[in-house]
């Protein structure tokens, strides 16, 4: 049936399992996470990962030949909605960023040798990888990238200054975006390179502390590293894909990534929303429970509407990507990026407000959600750039009226309308 | 395939036909509409209605046995989105309010005699009907209805003061909601009655002029009448359904009606959005076209996101109504009511603003759309009541934690988490 | 005392008188206004104007030598707040647009001959004037003006297409802005001319119907006329001021005009706010009066805050204009334009919503206020242009840091801070 | 001159000094603050405090007899706007919360003995004090306070559970609010007590970690402590003021406190705004600096308008408090609480967004400002309660119309208007 919003029953069972598993097994980990060292953490995760593999939910984003499921974005989206409820869940499901995205890139653009050398150990969990694109002086505008890779004999020599390199301080290998042809068209200037972390000249300066991770990193789950590349020499075999295809590859990685992001945000939102509603049921002030206050009712109703909107829009974008390809879904994906980030903020914000001081304290996970949510508005490109991009794509479908008068200008249209109407009446009369 | 957002190709063809038909045949009527008398208008509509019937799109909301299509709300929704682009379109498609809703009510709750006497001529277009529920002193709260119907022998005698009775001044028959048992539970106090317009005591005071129709009515398409019922005596056979079922019947009428409303609003929004985008392409100020201004780009992107959201939410509500029944879709329908009204306003508002003085003038249809949009926020119940209703329904799914501590209170949860984690580590160690 | 928010008691008395006078004498006129012909209206106004003159409140915007008061903008603002409560009030106080602004222009830039010929009869109420600047193709960007005035011997010949020419259809004389030097700098291209309405070639096409005045004009109080100037020949003596000073003069007129506008909007807002609050006290729904609903409480609190904000900002801008001159107050005036338009809309919108259908009907003045409010967002330049103007003026006060690093970049500042602190400690230690 | 928005020149000089002093001497301290121990910090502050005293700006909130200035709230407000730019500034100016508020309370309600014992060492900086009012189960509703103080012979015995007790963990003495008469009227149930920190039964459980201070306290400047009072016995002489006056005293403390808060928020906002504007001047993306992007221009213009609004409203409230008393200013103070909190958030949020990842990192002070700003919406009572309070106070000025019809109902008013108008015409005619 067309316009069918249901999930097939078999997959729904998997989702139900995942939801319960994440809630019962992963959420408790959150409260002890900060006390564990890397070894303890790995030991704690191992049996969880085993159970996920038994359910056939491991690394579901990968194509079947790499051990994934080949499900398409709608199904992945529904799973990521559940994983989003805990920042510790993706690692249990084999889809922890940036390793997940990097493995996709290597699967897509890597040579057989590159796959053997880097992809296989990555999938086996034997190595960790970083993604190194953002620069202090270049945000969303790719033409501003400064890092250069210059061909020198059989090598490339990379120089540049990156930051917000995910996992940079714990990675064994970095995927680095660098300009190979400064004179090419904007989106063909850069290429991607595989850079082993122990290559001389790779200097990880620090994990940049942020509002989300003020301690400078996620510790065991990686950080946003600042990295200086000084005369980093790598063999030309480490070029990923063809020269000039850096943005093309990045785009391929970012599209599905944004869908997963948005669905994970919905997981966070739902968790915050549940807290908001629970609080309303019993908190009492000024003569009634908060559930009876119209302001709180408005928060609940607006949150429900926004979450429903973001969810349907994201799944629609996923469906379009699955059925018509990434390019056709481009506008839809930009839409959900900024719309979804706004929903995440609003819902978490209301849940925090209803808890007052308690919500502001670290006794509840809401304040951490709020700090995380603030990042959503510029990660993967600031909302402003996505809005611009959406508008430009939409405007391609319109053209200026030939006479410079709006198509719907009534006085201009009136003559036509009169004639039309006269014809109708005439026809009617003729039939009488 | 589940989560399928496509329309079946055969129906898509019908929609494409309808879209072109409304644009080419109905839109021009708008500019001459005000000059036509009732007879001319009827003559102009006749051949249009014939073509709609040929396409099998006539009165599509009715069950097949009454000449409708029995399609369900998703398909109806998609059609109403197109009809919404012109307030003159529904009449060409046999689904002009309030006749459409009234015919549904009669089909649902009418006796065979009532159907023969009222429904058949209504469907044949031989009579017009009004819907008389709203009272000056009673807005959205049904317990405040004052109009009374008192049983007197074999008759009912109705007394009361209604307004915003759609079509009141041109109707042959009115469906009137009146309290039959003031002591019953709130939603069982009232009943519906069929009142011929020529019954003594039915006094139509005026068509209330509004922001949308300052001239006091839509003229040939009816108005919002103020009606005084003074000792209006009707036989008991004119009771519609059982005593006390007035709200039940009204609810049945309003549910699908809201879906159609929301989809028609999207039609209006899309028309305004097209004007907004067209204007951006050629209007020039301060060194560039408006398409290059980021404020305008934001308007376009936000409008696109909001419209996409409202569209998917409405079709989802329609799907839920089709597959799980009206009751299951209740929250969804309240959601789209207030969310959709907001979207309509925002999109029309932006389209008007980009046209400046021109948009504010009656040379473009935008100012009329803007006036119409303002009504959407309280028609069929003010947004505030729908928000409240949504919140109450959602809150039924939550309960207060037994110990009065939020379920996610980290200090409280920590003991459990530690034990959980100890077990995991133990298990892992045992397996070593 | 500095930072003194009080009004001097003597003037407060005048304001109190004006408030009561407008409420008791002018408001009732609103309900019969549409039935009066021009003569009746003039007769009705005459005694009212007399009483205003007796109070010394007549034409208060004019300099003393022209019969005005020379009070400055703060006092004028406080008066206009009261006049704003009724669109019929300004005419009783001798400050009806566009005559009020035109008389200011003539007083400012007119030659003695021009003053005698046009200003005196204007002040005496013997003639009416129009202001003709806006063109269909030129909104807020002055460089887009197309109307041309070409010197030909001792005459100027004007050709062009204007609309939204206030009073165009009833004026005896029009002040017309036309380009005299297309090659000059943007703000020196145009000049102002005095054009008698009966000059051949002045063709008033229509009063443009708008959302506010759908009947095409304010009738007896003028309309927004569309005017075609075809080879309109006027003697060079009708040039107002020097060639190229058109925008300079317009700017002089618009500054105080915006302050008066904003204060009048506050008058409208206050009147709507009073209706909102009154309704809350007695309207009952769902178990309590609306005054007990938190949504309504939010509306009241937010409206009060916004009105207080707009009021203080406008009076502050007026004070700045009075004490530091129009140029110093430029940013402040742009601020209140868009901020005030938003406040007006929001307050009226809430007042309308709380009245539901009644507010939407013409039985209350709210729906007319709502339609009027929509115009405020683009009259005198769209809000978007004022925001841009404010930003540009503010940004002139900032410069890029020499090293391209934000002044507040903590790592960069740290060295300086350490040294500073070492010095402090050293100093402290030395003092020990 | 009435409506005078200027500051007297002498005081302006002091403000200019303070602005430069805070910027040059205090801001640098921020970057080394976290490394200093208490002793170093005290030593660093000493010379700074000396300079403030020399300027006559020390403890300016106190009455002259206690070494303060007795300036009134307008002047204090202007000073706090400057102090707000750094959270380290108040301590240098002798007005660090909660000591500043506590000293006001002691000055207001303390007996001579209490003043000698507690106020004098507090003012001398020899001891630190805490303010202990908030309870986990009682937010803004005072009737929900659970902490009890029971008279027992010549003592009071206090039992209860408080949190967000400012300075609790470092204080020598705590001001504690406890219920003395549970059956009294809501605002007369509680009293304030002076509780030495070393009294048996005063158990400081922890400093509650919050979004603003995740490390659990401000360290050397105090924290939000959770305190358990278990059979805390204090002599009856430690009652502050009369029994039942707890809320009265608290209210006295909170009024001016809110004005100072709001002005400090404006200091923060201005600092963030400066960063926003500076960034716009040089950051380049997509073909121009950010200063040229209309979105950024909108941010600047809207921020400027909001800050101007909040500033004028706060100074107006201060002026009202100075001239008409705290009670008259009550609505004004509630208004600025929620309005100002919103402005603070919005400005900081935009400044952060324009800096993207950099703004989100701890390399700029913006992310800390953003976290602080989130607290402003519920500190000193959540915004929702202040809105409710404002609405209730305003609504006292309105009453229901006697006939249940809106005062402005046009049909109802029409008869009166016609009569009025007939009289006018008659009068005019008589005069003819």
UniProtKB/TrEMBL annotation, chains A, B, C, D:
Q: Which residues form the Acyl-CoA dehydrogenase/oxidase C-terminal domain?
A: 244-395
Q: Which UniProt keywords apply?
A: FAD, Flavoprotein, Oxidoreductase
Q: Name one GO cellular component term.
A: cytoplasm
SUPFAM superfamilies hit by this protein:
Acyl-CoA dehydrogenase C-terminal domain-like (SSF47203), Acyl-CoA dehydrogenase NM domain-like (SSF56645)
What's the superkingdom here?
A: Bacteria
Query: What processes does the entry annotate via GO biological process terms?
Result: fatty acid beta-oxidation using acyl-CoA dehydrogenase
* Record-linked PANTHER family: ACYL-COA DEHYDROGENASE FAMILY MEMBER 11, MEDIUM-CHAIN SPECIFIC ACYL-COA DEHYDROGENASE, MITOCHONDRIAL-RELATED
| Protein known as | Acyl-CoA dehydrogenase
Q: Which organism is it from?
A: Paraconexibacter algicola
